[in-house]
Amino acid sequence: MTSALHFLQLARQCEITELELLQRTSALVDTLGRLIHALQKERGLSTVYLTGRAAPTELAAQIKECEQLADTARAGFDDLSSPAQGARLFSRIAYVLQGLDALPALRERIQARQKTPETSAAALTKLVTGLLAVVFEAADGAADPNISRLLVALFHFMQGKELAGQERAAGVAAFGAGSEQRQQNWLHLIEAQERCFQVFAEFAPPTLLPQWRAEDAALERLRRVGCTSAANNESGADLRQTWFDVATSRMDALHAIETQLAAEVLYQCECRIAEARQPLPVADANADFFDSFPAPAASLGPQLNRSVLELVQDQSQRLQAMQAELETTRAALQERKLVERAKGLLMARRQFSEGEAHKLLRQTAMNQGRKLSEVAEAVLAMADLLPPAPH
Amino acid sequence: MTSALHFLQLARQCEITELELLQRTSALVDTLGRLIHALQKERGLSTVYLTGRAAPTELAAQIKECEQLADTARAGFDDLSSPAQGARLFSRIAYVLQGLDALPALRERIQARQKTPETSAAALTKLVTGLLAVVFEAADGAADPNISRLLVALFHFMQGKELAGQERAAGVAAFGAGSEQRQQNWLHLIEAQERCFQVFAEFAPPTLLPQWRAEDAALERLRRVGCTSAANNESGADLRQTWFDVATSRMDALHAIETQLAAEVLYQCECRIAEARQPLPVADANADFFDSFPAPAASLGPQLNRSVLELVQDQSQRLQAMQAELETTRAALQERKLVERAKGLLMARRQFSEGEAHKLLRQTAMNQGRKLSEVAEAVLAMADLLPPAPH
Known about the structure:
Two copies of one chain form a homodimer. Chain A is 76% helix and 0% strand. In chain A, helix 1 runs antiparallel to helix 4, helix 4 packs antiparallel against helix 5 and helix 5 runs antiparallel to helix 8.
């Protein structure tokens, strides 16, 4: 017959196991951040190579870096091979491995200029999207509310940075040969990344925010030039390189913040594990279960003379409070998912741009005095009334 | 280097592990249902013993049955000692074990008539509440949407049945010596159990609903007599026994449905495990990751000629869809929790009865054309504006 104290300890052990799992997943997120950063640069350089007549030397060096980081990531995946990690994470990893395996063939075709700037960028974007889905699964499974908040901030930051990376490639293509469609696409990428960074700012630890600069004068000037027809002239080739350099230095700055955020996640995991490993206070006497009242103020110090029942109640309350906090974070995320899904629906069925869809939702919410998520829910509920997606 | 196929299999294995865990927890829920049923009867018989002059023979037999079922439950707890089960579940179990350990002392005091009908019932209610919290944790952790719905139905059914059990004891006490307070308490128990059974009806499989009869003429007649002052006469003692018998046969009927529902949960676990154990279709060629389009209609039969990439995408979609469904169930539960918390706040701060609090929330929602959960959220948000709880 197992005692209450045993199950109390088992509960502690569970917490530690979950946190250690989270620590390993977070280490993987850090690795994936580096791989994504390298692939983003490969995507930018591939676009430069395909747009102009640049020699592929810088690209070749970048591919080598990607290969090394991909090996580290594969090793990281292997470290996770424990069934406690969750089916969805493993499915996402299986998807990404397919992409990594197919990379050499893609690179050969880029090298042979058998790809356009757009199809090359789209292929690498597909892989990065898969990698971000792995990060999302890792973030979604966190059982500690603080770490969960950090991972939500990190995931949105990484997504915003990915959109910034797509913007880099889109800008290179637009400076090469601007068209209204390329410029529209560029504007959309700017808007979408701003929304991701908003979520980051909402969930990130305040200490990290001062390092985060949303604005960059040189970048903004080039954006203005590139997104207006003024760029469609001979200076395009010069501006293309300037844009690539400015956008690259921005990507590096974003990567530095991302790395710090990932380090913060790992640090928080360590702290929480250390806390959970604190020995249980000594429990000497059993308070009577049926007659017990809330524990008196511990005038003898919190470590002394506490009954098992008090310990059980403390721990239970703490775990419940953590769960409630976690649900708040998840609800906030859930709201965002609703809004994203409603926007996607409007984009597919009404041929709205993402910006237009967002504006419509926000306007409707303001007019009706309702929350954005409520309007999104209403849009999804009336999906059947919208015209079908064109083919 | 581990292949995509390996991670695909790992994802499958994860699902199976989670389902087997769920199966073991569900078996425990079944055991706990039986123990709770026996404790509920012990509570009723204890009240009969303390209210009248009945000899304790029937009570003694019931205590024996409780002891046996408690041993089975303890063995069931021991079966769970794997850290994958979750910290909150183990904390709840630790709490319950304290209660089971303290039972013999409580029974001695009841035997010696050192307890009133109310304090005796309250003590056993405390233990049953702890046991229901274990069931709740088991229900909350389910990773499969169908099983999660069943467990939500089962949990609410068990909670409703527990309120019906409290009603049995309350009725015995009220027929012994009716007072306005006892009658108020009785009415509250009727109303609260009806709300639980509503949730059950919402989440239960339709096949089970025909067996579920909300009304019972004999019970309703006794409720009417007992809840009005008409019962305060010499016929009280006779009616007490009649009430106890009618309420007990109702409890037994509820228990039969509960047992069927628990069996259904176990059956669904088995089905899902069998499904997840189906071998993966043979994957012969790799579709190209970067050029692949959605899989063509499988004219060769679904088991033939499918690429690993297709398998990965199918599995991933299935898992995501399951997750979305699960979130819908959780959101529905979350809404109910909000409403319960708001009601609790109104009861504590405004001295409303549960019925009054519920009526106020519903009325406000109707007047404002808002969802009940939105009104509950608003109430919780303005908690600081309500008068503090009296002491």
